[in-house]
User: Fold this.
Amino acid sequence: MKGSNKSLIRRNAVRGLIAMAVMLCALTGWAGAQSLNERKANPLQAGAAVPVLSKNNLPADVMQDLSAPAVNPAAAVTAAPRAGQASDTGSAIAAQRDVAAEVQKAKGKADPKADPKTVYLTFDDGPSNVTPEVLEVLRDEGVKATFFVLGQQAKSHPELINAIWEQGHAIGNHTYNHNYHDLYSGFTEFWKQIKQTEEAVREITGIRPRLVRAPGGTYGHFDATYFELLKEAGYTVMDWNVDSGDSRRKGVPAAEIIRESLSLQASRVILLLHDGAGHAESAKALPQIIARYKAAGYRFGVLDAAQEPVQFRVSASAAARIKPSDAWIASNITPNAGLFGPGKPLILEVGKQEVKLDPGEYRIRKGQYVVPLRAVIERLGGRVGWDTVNRSGSVWWNGREVSADAGNKRLTLISGDGTLVTRESDVELIGSALWLPLRDLLEESGHPLLEVKVTAEERRVKAL
Assistant:
């Protein structure tokens, strides 16, 4: 009996051991399968580096298309640990988020409250035969730029100055002839060239550029007098903080210009390029420069005189020159600032209508108010047509038709019975707009002047 009981106990013990072994094997197999699945879901192992965006070393395809990577929340991507940082799952997820945030930031989506990154494309030494290609690229890309033009070139290519202005780009003053010897021999010579170029641009566009860029930049060229007197005269001197290198030597290839133009860490980039003769490679590089800044989340802006300027410091090599006399400064510098002052609005009171022209929307010439035809008539409720062939415009207002002819300097009233009444008038085509004396326009349209007065707040013209 005892022997039988012992045999039964041994059999039960063996069966228990076998059952435990089977359960252990099953558990081991399940854990192995789970580990294999985790490895499939997370192919990047500890120590695998995640690329980080940095200046000038981005692969071309990444810079052109900085798409945010897809994130699988169930899979932890492990990055190489930083110094003093443990390589654990938490840091791996943080590293993945850092990379995604960096990419999103490069696309301008990281923080909608943050100031947008801005690049200002600037072109010096034009216009030239390179300028049309630059304008075409900018138009196709929907980008505006700032052109620092030479007065000599503006005189030779007024149609290109007009094209720059009509496309909505900013125009700056780059002196008249770019001759270093003349420009930096003394301030009065630099001043003379600034005023020459200013007048050349004004004759074409009707505006006076307030932005000034010194040929070669101010470093080594400007002393304190140049900076002080230009500021006192109402101008803003603008250098740059990124140089494309397209003028370092003759024939710089487009690939090098692209590489030198990229500064994807700065929040405000003022990029120096050239559209003067011999810079076809700069125009060739432009689409890629724009594409890469766009991909990095930058917007494109145009410079204006109210912005904080970027200026090089006065260097020891810029020897102090003789400062102009107080009498010369009083005659030239002091009154010049008035050209850019806020001015007064011009109020037109015509019958029962009243419209306002802000400073810059009208001019005073030989004691007469000169106004843009379209702006005035359309604000008064009339209609304007334009004849590009004959350089003339037609006005339909209050039952009258008046033709303004810039080519023949005259106004023609077409009466109801077809009779033509013509008078001489200083009609001028500035850019794409017809400008003419306000008195002539009102009288030909049947609204003779009743009163003209000037107060501390405004200028007012009252007509019948």
